[in-house]
Specification:
- The radius of gyration is 22 Å and the shape is elongated.
- The chain is 34% helix and 29% strand.
- Strand 11 and strand 12 form a beta hairpin.
- The longest helix is centred in the last third of the chain and has 30 residues.
- By secondary structure, it is α/β, with parallel strands linked by helices.
Length: 408
């Protein structure tokens, strides 16, 4: 009798769906599709040995945080993940305040009361979300975890096979690419890609603030210095996301967190008072770019998350687009005709059509705003400040915009 853990027994793995990826979107897709009744293999790259697990409360704050909207909240709640989060490390966003630039800066403000909702969004750390998903997956039925490096993807009329470097084959009806902006799955399908760098990097860190933030997320469009966002964390603490031009980003990364805090005083001192670094050594950065794959699906393949689209983070919706992809994919596969395979080209085309408008609107909006507010020209500065002030005085339009942003 063959030992189930032996290499020979693992050479061929069969499941309805193979998901390639190891981030929050991949794990959510695995959990959601398994709960929908499909057998799932989650293929993740080889990991380094992990140290002993630490209590979340004993850890410092992640530099990488997400602003999750109602679409993400509803999906994670339905999957029983939301209540597994460390709620003490989740901050509701009750207001959004946008500042223009220059001497006559415009402004725009949203709040939960005006949007007829309890909260606009929730700020949480990558670690908190990842740990809750890992805990849920431990108890998930129909999910198999495989670590390995994919070397080939073979697609045929009756299914798809992912080949690994150790000789293992994963056979499935559908492969889901949830493997990020540099997606290997997307590359195997020869899906074309429009790419543009914003010549900016997001510099992130966390600070304690002297004055309470009252659950308000603040954003400053500064022109020459990029876009500064301070997002509320629990207590009198905020998370910085500074979309800075490359030269300024180099300068910021060479400075200490305290020097960055001193720079932020120009924008935030009146509202938040003195900022103090929570972890002086914790300053990170990542490049900002626009990625537009020419398709979100191919025969036997569906793309979700950053594998399917990457947008500027000024609206904080990159992760939310990914959760909406997962929710739509689960819905489309579950509602297909009984005679159709989950990898049927017509089924996957329905998924792509259902996501096209939402993704395109977010791409156009974030790209347009990044271009408009990135130009350091006085005529444009006047126009964009007037636009912010005008929009702030149109409550019906404001409610429509914020409702879309919330995923309602």
């Amino acid at each position: 009798m063959t030992n189930p853990s032996s290499p020979a027994a693992l050479r061929v793995i069969e499941s309805d769906i193979c998901i390639v990826g190891n981030g929050a979107i991949a794990k959510t897709a695995a959990l959601g599709l398994a709960q929908a009744g499909f057998s799932v293999t989650l293929l993740a790259p080889p990991s380094y040995p992990a140290g002993p697990a630490a209590n979340t409360a004993d850890l410092g704050w992640d530099a990488r945080v997400y602003a999750l909207n109602h679409t993400a909240h509803n999906l994670l709640s339905a999957l029983k993940v939301w209540h597994a989060l460390d709620q003490a490390r989740v901050a509701p966003v009750d207001a959004m305040i946008v500042h223009g630039d220059g001497a006559n800066a415009g402004g725009l403000a949203f709040d939960a009361y005006g949007a007829h909702t309890g909260t606009l969004a929730w700020i949480m750390e990558d670690r908190n979300l990842g740990q809750a998903l890992d805990a849920a997956l431990k108890f998930a039925q129909n999910v198999r975890f495989v670590e390995g490096r994919a070397t080939g993807l073979l697609r045929a009329d009756d299914g798809a096979t992912v080949h690994l470097d150790d000789g293992t084959c994963i056979k499935s009806e559908l492969v889901v690419g949830a493997d990020g902006a540099q997606s290997w799955v997307r590359g195997q399908c020869d899906i074309g890609l429009d790419y543009r760098s914003y010549n900016q990097r997001a510099v992130v860190s966390n600070f304690a603030c002297e004055k309470p933030h009252h659950g308000a997320a603040c954003q400053w469009f500064t022109g020459a210095e990029g876009i500064v966002a301070l997002l509320p964390l629990p207590g009198n603490q905020v998370s910085l996301v500074w979309s800075a031009p490359e030269v300024l980003a180099d300068t910021l990364r060479a400075e200490s967190a305290q020097q960055i805090a001193d720079r932020l005083a120009v924008y935030a001192a009146d509202r938040l008072g003195v900022l103090t670094p929570l972890q002086p050594e914790l300053v990170r950065d990542f490049p900002l770019r626009l990625l537009r794959p020419h398709a979100m699906s191919a025969p036997r393949v569906a793309l979700v998350g950053d594998a399917a689209h990457v947008v500027h983070p000024l609206a904080g919706h990159g992760m939310n687009l990914g959760f909406a992809d997962v929710a739509q994919l689960i819905k489309t596969l579950s509602e297909r005709e009984a005679q159709r395979s989950i990898g049927d080209t017509r089924v996957l085309a329905r998924y792509e059509r259902a996501r096209k408008e939402d993704v395109l609107l977010m791409q156009l909006t974030t790209d347009g705003l990044a271009r408009l507010f990135g130009a350091d020209m006085e005529p444009l500065r006047v126009v964009r400040n007037l636009g912010l002030n005008l929009l702030d005085k149109l409550p019906v339009l404001k409610r429509r915009l914020i409702s879309h942003a919330m995923g309602k």
